[in-house]
């Protein structure tokens, strides 16, 4: 189980493109997801930049209003369905989970490949709307009745989302079964790395919640084609029912996005503070608690939609409950750092910014969870800032933290620290310049999704647009540094961070079946005794 | 994985044909009941009745036709988790729709 043993998975298997797109090796599938998702992420960033350019000053500047509607719809669909939801599970879950468990692969390798194919098929169908029938203009939520009546090609877009849902379900199913069945000898449930716990909770949400949105999107199709009154009130439907069905999935989906991110943070924090994680079981249980309570809070997206007062009060109360397990994690990460031998490497910088930004996102969520304040803030840019702080400041920063943490293992190369830290700094500053002014503009009353705004919102919008350029500059620095490392980076040792989880026991990059001999687990995943120190 | 599949395949758990016919008749009867109840005006209870009958039918199908009755307890627990989830989804949705006032 060292670098000397055998060839890496890059050097084995079928050569050429077919060796990738028909491979059932979990590592190759993880990398397929990584490249496809980063491509979509780049497109999503470009769309976001264009929107911010339009909003830089009041009035018309670079795109007409109807194009702006399609821009924010496509930005949302791409970022949510093609980047943040598959995000950490599809890339790092696929690549790392079997390695962390000491397994050769996931439980169903062929289903794993199928899920990637469904992912690219769904993505391809979504992009076909560019050429057939016009880009959807409904927002990523496809709210009825507008999604029923829109003349744009909403049908193809919702069908694409339906296909993408299957990809997600299959990935979740694979991870749940893998965790139940394929743990290494000696790895009890409480010797599992916390990233695996995060994926386990996520897997259950993917299995249980995703079918609801699948059926709901099909009902939109049925209503558009056959004019059956399901959601459109003019033909006897109930638009609030659509919102229920949509958020029954889409709120738990927020936890599909964030739980694996929290799992990755739980790996990075102890490794770079050289301390056993504080409150292992509490962090593990809080993942499950978030997954469970996350099912009960969807109605908080609908406080101003005409839902009954009883339901509003119930959902508001339940919303506050979900903050408790989240806070448990934050306190435990901070307690892990306390008196640790902290080494401020790039992954930890991303992890610390995750904690900071996600906390802001979480607290501002509570402001909206209160019924009275939500009436004022609903559908303002305050909401836009809130969910970008949770989804980008949270999941996005965790994604880049995880990428820098596992990069040596995935590619067998080390990246340069200084440019990575510069990229992180630009990202962190740019992110806050981009989104914090939107809290202020939203609080002042600027509506979200509007193409134009009153002159009194000019300053926060100008600052926000400048922030978007700083953020993109940071992303470019990170990308150049990592791409450069792929070719010119120093060769990575098996365990550059002196971490204690199993994936670091094998060579970087790992061989085809991960371990030369099946590993036997005798110590906890955060037991750093005898591992040595990380170079600062 | 292989071991589990082998042991499942070897298990003699098929019910006698009589049981399947009984279950089928039961499902047909419940379908008739659904149609009959839909003709009676019970307000919100119409939906509750339809959901209750449909749930009973699904339970019978899962229990006999899908062989849950003969499976390991972990599978029963997993199905139970899904039923509870569905119950929560329906319950919280109905909290809204049953007491929603005029806008």
Kindly describe this structure:
The complex is a heterodimer of chains A (536) and B (103). Chain A has a single domain (26-505), classed as Up-down Bundle (Cytochrome C Oxidase, Chain A), CATH 1.20.210. Chain A is an all-alpha fold and 536 residues long. In chain A, helix 2 packs antiparallel against helix 16 and helix 8 (194-226) packs antiparallel against helix 9 (239-273). Chain A contains 16 helices and 2 strands. Helices cover 66% and strands 1% of the residues of chain A. The two termini of chain A are 26 Å apart. In chain A, strands 1-2 form a two-stranded antiparallel ribbon. Chain A is globular. Chain A has helices at residues 18-21, 26-54, 65-84, 87-101, 109-128, 146-149, 154-181, 194-226, 239-273, 280-293, 309-337, 346-369, 371-377, 381-411, 417-444, 458-488; strands at residues 413-414, 490-491. The mean pLDDT of chain A is 93. Chain B is built from 4 helices and no strands. With 103 residues, chain B is an all-alpha fold. Helices cover 76% and strands 0% of the residues of chain B. Chain B is flat, with a radius of gyration of 18 Å. The model of chain B is unreliable at 1-6 (pLDDT under 50). Chain B has one domain (2-97). In chain B, helix 2 (17-38) runs antiparallel to helix 3 (44-65). The chains are: A mainly alpha (536), B mainly alpha (103). Chains A and B meet through helix 8, helix 9 and helix 11 of A and helix 4 of B.
Keywords:
heterodimer, A: mainly alpha, Cytochrome C Oxidase, Chain A, two-stranded antiparallel sheet, 16 helices, globular, B: 103 residues, mainly alpha, 0% strand, flat, disordered N terminus
Would you identify the CATH architecture of chain A? Up-down Bundle
How many structural domains in the coordinates of chain B? Answer: 1
β-strand number of chain B: 0
Helical stretch tally of chain B: 4
What is the strand arrangement across the widest sheet of chain A? 1-2
What's the total count of β strands of chain A? Answer: 2
Q: Which stretches of chain A are low in confidence, meaning pLDDT under 50 for 5 or more residues running?
A: none
Most extensive interface: pair and counts?
A-B, 22 and 17 residues
Largest sheet of chain B: none
**SS field, number of helical segments of chain A:** 16
User: Would you tell me the structural class of the helices and strands of chain A?
Assistant: mainly alpha
For the record, give the distance between the C-alpha atoms at the N and C termini of chain A, rounded to a whole number.
Answer: 26 Å
């Amino acid at each position: 189980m060292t670098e000397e043993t055998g060839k890496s998975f890059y050097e084995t298997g079928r050569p050429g493109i077919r060796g990738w797109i028909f491979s059932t090796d979990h590592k190759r599938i993880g990398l397929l997801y990584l490249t496809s998702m980063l491509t979509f992420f780049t497109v999503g960033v470009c769309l976001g930049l264009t929107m911010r350019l339009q909003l830089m000053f009041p009035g018309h500047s670079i795109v007409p209003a109807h194009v702006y509607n399609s821009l924010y719809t496509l930005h949302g669909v791409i970022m949510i369905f093609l980047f943040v939801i598959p995000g950490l599970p599809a890339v790092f879950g696929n690549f790392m989970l079997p390695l962390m468990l000491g397994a050769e692969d996931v439980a169903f390798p062929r289903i794993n490949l199928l899920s990637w194919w469904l992912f690219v098929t769904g993505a391809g169908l979504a992009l076909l709307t560019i050429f057939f029938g016009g880009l959807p203009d409904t927002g990523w939520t496809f709210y009825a009745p507008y999604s029923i009546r829109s003349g744009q090609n909403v049908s193809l877009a919702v069908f694409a989302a339906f296909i993408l849902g299957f990809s997600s379900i299959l990935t979740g199913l694979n991870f749940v079964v893998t965790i139940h069945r394929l743990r290494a000898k000696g790895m009890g449930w409480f010797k599992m790395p916390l990233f695996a716990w995060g994926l386990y909770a996520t897997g259950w949400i993917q299995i249980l919640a995703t079918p609801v949105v699948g059926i709901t999107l099909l009902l939109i199709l049925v209503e558009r084609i056959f004019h059956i009154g399901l959601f459109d009130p003019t033909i006897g439907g109930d638009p609030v029912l659509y919102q229920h069905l949509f958020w029954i999935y889409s709120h738990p989906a927020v936890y599909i996005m964030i739980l694996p991110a929290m799992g990755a943070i739980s790996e990075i924090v102890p490794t770079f503070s050289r301390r056993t994680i504080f409150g292992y079981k509490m962090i593990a249980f809080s993942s499950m608690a978030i997954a469970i309570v996350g099912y009960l809070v969807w109605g908080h997206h609908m406080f101003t939609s005409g839902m009954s007062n009883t339901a509003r009060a119930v959902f508001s109360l339940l919303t506050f409950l979900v903050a408790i397990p989240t806070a448990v994690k934050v306190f435990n990460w901070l307690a892990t750092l306390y008196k640790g031998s902290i080494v401020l490497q790039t992954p930890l910088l991303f992890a610390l910014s995750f904690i900071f930004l996600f906390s802001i996102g979480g607290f501002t969520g509570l402001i909206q969870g209160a019924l009275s304040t939500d009436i004022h803030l609903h559908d303002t840019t305050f909401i836009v800032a809130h969910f970008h702080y949770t989804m980008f400041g949270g999941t996005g920063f965790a994604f880049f933290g995880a990428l820098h943490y596992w990069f040596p293992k995935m590619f067998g190369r080390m990246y340069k620290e200084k440019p990575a830290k510069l990229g992180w700094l630009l990202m962190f500053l740019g992110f806050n310049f981009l989104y914090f002014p939107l809290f202020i503009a939203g609080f002042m009353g600027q509506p979200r999704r509007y193409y134009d705004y009153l002159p009194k919102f000019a300053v926060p919008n100008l600052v926000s647009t400048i922030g978007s350029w700083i953020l993109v500059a940071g992303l470019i620095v990170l990308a150049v540094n990592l791409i450069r490392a792929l070719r010119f980076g120093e060769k990575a040792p098996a365990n550059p961070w002196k971490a204690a989880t199993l994936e670091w026991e094998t060579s970087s990059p790992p061989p085809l079946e991960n371990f030369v001999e099946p590993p036997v687990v005798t110590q906890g995943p955060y037991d750093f005794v005898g591992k040595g120190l990380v170079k600062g | 994985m292989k071991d589990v599949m082998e042991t499942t395949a070897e298990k003699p758990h098929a019910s006698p044909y009589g049981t399947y016919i009984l279950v089928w008749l039961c499902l047909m009867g419940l379908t008739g009941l659904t149609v009959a109840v839909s003709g009676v005006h019970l307000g919100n209870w119409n939906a509750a009745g339809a959901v209750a009958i449909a749930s009973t039918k699904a339970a019978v199908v899962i229990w006999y036709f899908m062989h849950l009755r003969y499976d390991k307890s972990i599978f029963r627990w997993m199905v139970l988790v899904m039923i509870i989830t569905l119950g929560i989804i329906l319950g919280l949705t109905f909290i809204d729709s049953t007491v929603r006032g005029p806008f």
